[in-house]
Amino acid sequence: MPWFREILALLPTIIVAPVKRNSADQKRVDRIASGLTLYTLSSCPYSAKVHRHLKQLNISVGVKNLKRCNAYQKELLAGGGRAQVPCLRIETAKGSRWLYESQDILSYLDGKFMPKKTAKLEQA
């Protein structure tokens, strides 16, 4: 039952509480996130892990599901060199960077988008 696995993979993304930001910070995060594209498969547990983390960080990125369009797989293979998901394409002024491995993607997202604790909260 592949449809059952897809539902189970998406279920945790529904129950994660997102990070709260003020509107200026959220606009900054949205601007940075506009250069990100996630290549994924809906039935992949590692992709689901990245989706959960994106939802928790309250980040909206472009998602290209390889199951829905064959061209996405060709694009991933041509750009990143591997047809492996999840893969995060990071567009910068210097060009594209292709980041594979879910844990590397999570570390990158945390470094870019995890709200920094204020000095007062760290001292408490």
Strand content: 15-25%
CATH class designation = Alpha Beta
Helix content: 40-55%
| Helix and strand element order | HHEHEHEEHH
How many extended strands? Answer: 4
- What does the radius of gyration come to? 16 Å
How many structural domains can be distinguished in the coordinates? 1
**Could you say which structural class the secondary elements and strand pairing correspond to?**
alpha+beta
Q: Could you state the CATH homologous superfamily?
A: Glutaredoxin
The side-by-side strand order for the widest beta sheet comes to 2-1-3-4
* Biggest sheet record: 4 strands, mixed
- Mean of residue pLDDT values: 84
Number of helices: 6
For the record, the CATH architecture stands as 3-Layer(aba) Sandwich
- Principal-axis shape: globular
Low-confidence stretches: 118-124
The name CATH uses for the topology is: Glutaredoxin
N-to-C span? 50 Å
Attribute tags:
single chain; about 120 residues; alpha+beta; Glutaredoxin; 4-stranded mixed sheet; 4 strands; about 50% helix; globular; disordered C terminus
Task: Explain how this protein is built.
This protein is an alpha+beta fold and 124 residues long. The chain has a single domain (2-13, 34-114), classed as Glutaredoxin. 52% of the residues lie in helices and 17% in strands. Strands 2-1-3-4 form a four-stranded mixed sheet. The radius of gyration is 16 Å and the shape is globular.
